[in-house]
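#struct-help
A.M.: can someone run this one for me? Single chain, 267 residues.
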Amino acid sequence: MAISIMRHEINNPDQRLGASVSKMRTVKNSAVKKKVRVSSLPTRRGAGRPKSQGLSDDLATRRVILEAALQTFSLYGFEGASITRIARMHGVSPPLIHYYFETKDELWRAAMEQGIGDMVRNLEEISAELVESDCIARLKFFIRRYLGIVAEKPAVFRVIVRESDMPSPRLTWLAHHYMTPLYRLIAGLIEQAQAAGRLKSVAPPYHMAQIITGACYHFLASRNRILETYGIEVNTREIRELHANAVIEILFTGMLTPSAADGSASR
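D.P.: on it. Structure tokens below:
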């Protein structure tokens, strides 16, 4: 199964200019006078406003600022990530940041939207396309995809963990826009599997959702500790695939071998 999304934007400007020889002097003199009058006026630009640039350049600049902000927020938290620090760490001028984003709150929300927005939408779209598939197969696919996203976007999840430490308007915003839709999606898959008699109802769907996402996230979040302790880099394709297989095997089959399971059942 392969799902691909293609987007093309084409912009072909065309400009034409023509003038008769007999009118060139008149046009030239008029243009000179207008140029003098215009040049004598003061130029007004907002603080930090970039020079005229195309739409693609403007969007690229905005993406660079948001990525710099996301990385800084993930390392220092909202309070510790000042506009000056974001600018200094990533070579972006503070006035340029203020040109695109009036407040740090606005910058924070935009950075999270760039970092996590597509992830939630992508999972929702894929789940909708796989609606006819076996409920367990859909759940296993979600686990693999979710683990891959955690590995691809570590800064996003560091921010979420930081903001989850205590109640705040930012946590409320995250929960409303992204965390609730994400957990509702996986809890829905679990609920369907339980209703079909395919999964044990040892805990409510929301509880099972936390077990699954925790099993996916914690291993990758422990990257530095595992690297220091075992000398293993967890964020490689090989190790991530190994971990995905282990999570699925343990969650859906268990850790005990058949003989051990039979022995424990007889006691």
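A.M.: thanks! DSSP finds twelve helices and no strands in the chain.
D.P.: also worth noting: The domain at 115-255 is CATH 1.10.357.10 (Tetracycline Repressor; domain 2).
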